[in-house]
Amino acid sequence: MAERKSSRTWCPSGDPHAPEAVALGVRSGQDGGVVYLADPVPASQVLGMVPEGVEPRRVLRFASHCTSNCVNRRGDDCTLVERVLAAPAATATAVPRCHLRTQCQWWSQTGVEACRRCPAVSTLHLAGDRLGELVADPSTTREQLDEWIAANPAGATGAGAGG
């Protein structure tokens, strides 16, 4: 695992309206994977460019500071990344370039496997995406996730949704 460079970590599935929030990338293609920006852009600069009626998280991926009151927080750990890693990956994914990595909670907690899954994580999942719903739900246990995946192998491809 990587060492934390700062006492403040960042969530790569963050709140676009947090004061420090940045746009990490653009969701693109049929699978909605994230294509990371070369440099982060303050969310406040891009939110106004998203057409009215379009949820910003449908087209952009944001990062913001991890907070102690997050529903996905357990002590110093993020349970969301644990659920993301429990879901089967669609394919082997290369580790993307990411400016956030040295301060990323997911990297700090789980290392490179989180980075491989990160481009597939959606902070806004589609209706009917049961795996995405389970991964995003902080009350989902690892056992529940494993049971659903075992019972639905055809529906378990993909990295699931984020928080």
Architecture overview:
This protein has 163 residues and is α+β, with helices and mostly antiparallel strands. The protein has one domain (10-156). It has helices spanning 43-46, 56-59, 79-86, 105-110, 112-117, 130-136, 142-151; strands at 10-11, 22-28, 33-42, 60-65, 73-74, 77-78. The strands form two sheets. The chain has a four-stranded antiparallel sheet. A two-stranded antiparallel ribbon has the order 5-6. Strand 2 (22-28) and strand 3 (33-42) form a beta hairpin. The chain is globular.
Topology:
Elements: E1 10-11, E2 22-28, E3 33-42, H1 43-46, H2 56-59, E4 60-65, E5 73-74, E6 77-78, H3 79-86, H4 105-110, H5 112-117, H6 130-136, H7 142-151
Antiparallel strand pairs: 1-4, 2-3, 2-4, 5-6
Helix content: 25-40%
Number of helices: 7
Q: Element order, helices and strands?
A: EEEHHEEEHHHHH
What is the overall silhouette? globular
**Strand residue content:** 15-25%
Strand order of the largest sheet: 1-4-2-3
Number of domains: 1
Keywords summarizing the entry:
163 residues, alpha+beta, Nitrogen fixation protein, 7 helices, two-stranded antiparallel sheet, disordered C terminus
Please give a quick description of this structure.
This is Nitrogen fixation protein. The protein is an alpha+beta fold. The protein is built from 7 helices and 6 strands, in the order E-E-E-H-H-E-E-E-H-H-H-H-H.
